[in-house]
């Protein structure tokens, strides 16, 4: 069994992954900004790790011991039109969703490279390949994350390190409900916001994502991109087949 470090394990997808991998017998190192919320998880280690803080990352990796698999899951989203979203919110998402994932990768990768084995798993989204209105900053952070992950696959593959990008669609993790929302009074983009639930499509559970992640890390030759469930596969296939000379949206908008 593998030694697996998970970022953002306090709730939602990260917590479900920790439970699933522990059930399968893996050595799980669950991390969160507040490790006290991990107390009830049946895992080997519970560590403080803030992916936006270099000292925190270095301390956690030092305390974790050998890491065979890194699951970069920590992330957040916002709800706002690009015309008016506070730029500090966009910067915050990139620090957390994109640069944070790279920061932890840089901390574990040297040991993986020297051993000649390891697996980097990035929890992305179908929005790492397509966009939805009102969630543009999140999508941008995931597109950037996928660019980093694909680059890593090229750079570290010949050292024996695998890279996988897990791509769920809408997930019933509560992340959308916890998202910060930025709309003004009589905001002209409110009609789009009101349609967002329908545009996001069919919802999968965090447990379904966790099973997909577990199956991916247990493969001897894992794929680079791993859609989660039929809804994600359908949306990504539609994106692939759509013309590149116009914006793409896989659901209808009624203004």
Total strands: 11
CATH class: Alpha Beta
Mean pLDDT, to the nearest integer, reads 95
Which range does the strand content fall in? 15-25%
What is the topology, as strand order, of the major beta sheet? 3-2-1-4-6-7-11
The computed structural class is: alpha/beta
Kindly summarize this structure in a few lines.
The protein has 255 residues and is α/β, with parallel strands linked by helices. The protein has helices spanning 12-23, 54-64, 87-115, 136-156, 175-178, 190-194, 196-200, 206-217, 229-241; strands spanning 3-6, 27-32, 45-48, 69-72, 78-79, 118-123, 161-167, 170-171, 180-181, 203-204, 225-227.
What do these coordinates show?
The protein has 9 helices and 11 strands. The strands form 3 sheets. The protein has a 7-stranded parallel beta sheet with strand order 3-2-1-4-6-7-11, sandwiched between helices. A two-stranded parallel sheet has the order 5-9. With about 260 residues, the protein is an alpha/beta fold. It is globular, with a radius of gyration of 18 Å. The protein is about 45% helix and about 15% strand.
Topology readout:
Blueprint: E1 3-6, H1 12-23, E2 27-32, E3 45-48, H2 54-64, E4 69-72, E5 78-79, H3 87-115, E6 118-123, H4 136-156, E7 161-167, E8 170-171, H5 175-178, E9 180-181, H6 190-194, H7 196-200, E10 203-204, H8 206-217, E11 225-227, H9 229-241
């Amino acid at each position: 069994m593998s030694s697996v470090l998970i970022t953002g394990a306090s709730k939602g997808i990260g917590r479900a992954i920790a439970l699933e991998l522990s059930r399968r017998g893996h050595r799980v190192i669950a991390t969160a900004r507040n490790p006290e919320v991990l107390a009830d998880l049946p895992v080997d280690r519970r560590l403080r790790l803030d992916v936006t803080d270099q000292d925190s990352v270095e301390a956690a990796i030092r305390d974790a011991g050998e890491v065979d698999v890194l699951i970069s899951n920590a992330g957040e989203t916002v709800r706002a039109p690009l015309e008016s979203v506070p730029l500090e919110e966009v910067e915050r998402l990139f620090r957390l969703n994109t640069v944070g994932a790279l920061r932890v990768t840089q901390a574990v990768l040297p040991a993986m490279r020297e051993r000649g084995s390891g697996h980097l798993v990035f929890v992305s989204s179908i929005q790492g390949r397509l966009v939805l209105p009102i969630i543009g900053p999140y999508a941008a952070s995931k597109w950037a994350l996928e660019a980093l992950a694909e680059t890593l696959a090229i750079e570290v593959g010949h050292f024996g390190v695998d890279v996988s990008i897990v791509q769920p669609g809408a997930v019933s993790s509560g992340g959308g409900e916890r998202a910060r929302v930025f709309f003004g009074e009589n905001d002209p983009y409110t009609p789009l916001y009101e349609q967002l639930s329908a545009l996001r499509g069919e919802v999968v559970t965090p447990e379904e994502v966790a099973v997909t992640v577990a199956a991916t890390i247990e493969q001897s030759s894992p794929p680079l991109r791993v859609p989660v469930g039929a809804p994600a596969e359908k949306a990504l296939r539609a994106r692939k087949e759509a013309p590149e000379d116009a914006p793409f949206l896989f659901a209808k908008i009624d203004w």
